[in-house]
Every structure is written in C-alpha cells, then in structure tokens.
Design goal:
AhpD-like, mainly alpha
C-alpha cells in the first residue's frame, strides 16, 4: 500500500471512494489513458509538456485538452467560446465530463499530497 493510500485508509470510506475513482476514471474510462497522462504531466509542470503550444509533438486534440487543463488549474477565463468550440470538436460530451473530472481530481490530489510531503509521482 502506498503512503497516500495508508493515509486515505484512516478513513475507510475515503480509501474506497479513491479506489473507485482510480479504477473507473484515473485508470479506465472513455478517455485515452495517454491523454490523461499528458494532462497529469501538465499539472505536474513537466518541462516537455508545459510549452505544448509551440511544440510539434502535440496535435489539436492534445492542445485542446492541455488548454482546458490550464483553464481549470490556473486561468478559468481561458474557458471561452473558442476553447469550448475546440473541445466539442475534439471530444464527446462523456469524454469532456470524464476528462474534466480527471483534471480536477488530479489537480486536487497533487496539491493535497504535496502538503503531506509525498512525491509527485503518487498523484496519479
């Protein structure tokens, strides 16, 4: 059991809820795992991902998702009509719901775990 799960286990319902989220959203679901990992790397401020807008390594779907990560995590004003049009052009409604939940959950977990002094690698 990871240190983070040991802490969650102090409240068994919290550990169960996290386990369900991990199984159904973080590790499974309708959104490609590669894209989720890319979003998590952006939240972790991975140097290879932070400058995505000027890199040829990312396609429009990746860029739309990463722009949404940025809007959710750091600048909600970026969630304008243009971003929503790009998101809707690249993702189904269920994908948007799952990806938004993934981004919000991963962001919150990463901040919480850092306050506990745990490694960034435990955030996913």
């Amino acid at each position: 059991m990871s240190e983070a799960d040991a802490i969650r286990a102090r409240v068994p319902d919290a550990l169960r809820a996290y386990g369900e989220t991990r199984a159904t959203v973080l590790e499974a679901g309708v959104v490609d795992q590669r894209l989720k990992e890319l979003c998590a790397r952006y939240i972790a401020e991975d140097d290879e991902v932070v400058n995505y807008s000027t890199s040829d390594a990312f396609d429009e779907r990746d860029r739309a998702a990463l722009d949404w990560v940025h809007a959710i995590a750091w600048n909600s004003d970026m969630a304008d009509a243009d971003l929503w049009n790009r998101l809707r052009a690249n993702f189904s409604e269920p994908e948007l719901v799952e990806l938004g939940y993934f981004i919000a959950f991963t962001l919150g977990q990463s901040h919480w775990l850092r306050t506990l002094g745990l490694e960034k690698s435990e955030t996913i």
